[in-house]
Design brief:
Chain A is of the alpha+beta class and 79 residues long. Chain A has helices at residues 16-27, 51-66; strands at 2-9, 40-45, 72-78. The radius of gyration of chain A is 16 Å and the shape is elongated. In chain B, helix 2 (70-80) links the parallel strand 3 (47-50) and strand 4. In chain B, helix 1 (16-27) crosses helix 5. Chain B is built from five helices and eleven strands. Classes of the chains: A alpha+beta (79), B alpha/beta (225).
């Protein structure tokens, strides 16, 4: 299975990278851009074929290592 | 009796020797360097220092990998026994990632690496890390980090403030930290995390000796215990 884990700063936590990217996009003329958030995408292969079980494992990985839930939220996908 | 200390060393630590020298010079402590793969610490420690640097290259998040290293499991056990733990800069990040201190350190608000002398207000002088500061209201240390912007959710922040866990505040906030927080202690009072470096400000030749009383405080606390 292919796993994808998206990690972002929680809403309300200042994303200074997002702000900087937004400023740069405005500078290039894309004035309609707002609320840019810069996150991380982790991709990996996962043994097994039970997608629901895999999602449970991915969430455990996020809670233990892949995200810091004090400041970050995450979303998992399996395909 | 000389203070017995351990300084942890991770791949990417760069203030480990500064910390060793600071403890030796300020209080004549006996210091052992402990590699991150060790699962046990020397016996009879009075102090464990988690130094600054870029452990594991700051991969994933600052301090995330180091917080899971074998030696940190031993540090947690020692902390629960009441041994003093001092995390400086990356050490503070590691303590937050390990769940030994509340909150987290975000990227600096101005997106800049902040590297300069910095003035700190002593908020709590009744700790085992600050009892030797006497009536000093502010002290100078140095700051050097890209992710020093302390953050905690409002309810956690209130808890930190209500319990007098803020030990140092910035006189002028350099990085966007909530409530100007530069250093906090755990509820039990034996684990301190701070972004400024007492280990780079322990004698006049370094520009400030204001970090020295922090190490003296630890010795004082041991003698009165």
């Amino acid at each position: 299975m292919k796993a994808k884990v998206h990690v972002y700063l929680k809403p309300g936590v200042l994303d200074v990278q997002g702000k900087a990217v937004e400023g740069a996009l405005h500078g290039l003329g894309w004035d309609g851009v707002s609320n840019v958030r810069v996150g991380k995408l982790l991709e990996f292969d996962l043994d097994g074929s039970d997608q629901e079980a895999a999602k449970g494992e991915l969430k455990a990985m996020c809670e233990k290592l892949l995200a810091n839930t004090v400041i970050e939220s995450y979303k998992v996908e399996v395909a | 009796m000389a203070l017995k200390a351990a300084v942890l060393v991770f791949p990417g630590s760069n203030c480990d020797r500064d910390c060793k020298t600071a403890v030796e010079t300020t209080v004549g402590g006996k210091v052992e360097m402990v590699w991150h793969e060790e699962s046990t610490l020397p016996s009879g420690l009075d102090l464990i220092v988690i130094p600054g640097g870029f452990s594991y290259g700051d991969y994933l998040r600052c301090g995330a990998m180091a917080s899971l290293s074998p030696v940190m499991q031993a540090v947690k056990a020692e902390a629960e026994r009441g041994v003093s733990v001092l995390g400086i800069c990356n050490g503070f990040q590691i303590l937050c990632e390990a769940g030994m201190l509340p909150g987290a350190l975000l990227r600096n608000a101005a997106l800049k690496y902040v590297c300069k002398p910095i003035e700190l207000k002593i908020e709590n002088r009744n700790t085992r890390f600050t009892n030797a500061y006497g009536n000093a209201q502010t002290v100078w240390m140095t700051q050097g980090n890209g992710d020093g912007n302390f953050f905690a959710e409002p309810d956690v922040l209130k808890d930190i403030e209500d319990n007098n866990q803020v030990v140092f505040r910035y006189a002028e906030n350099p990085n966007g930290s909530v409530n100007d927080i530069a250093g906090i202690i755990n509820k039990a009072g034996n684990v301190l995390g701070m972004m400024p470096h007492p280990d780079r400000a322990f004698e006049d030749a370094l520009g400030s000796a204001d970090g020295a009383p922090l190490f003296q405080s630890i010795v004082n606390a041991l003698q009165t215990a």
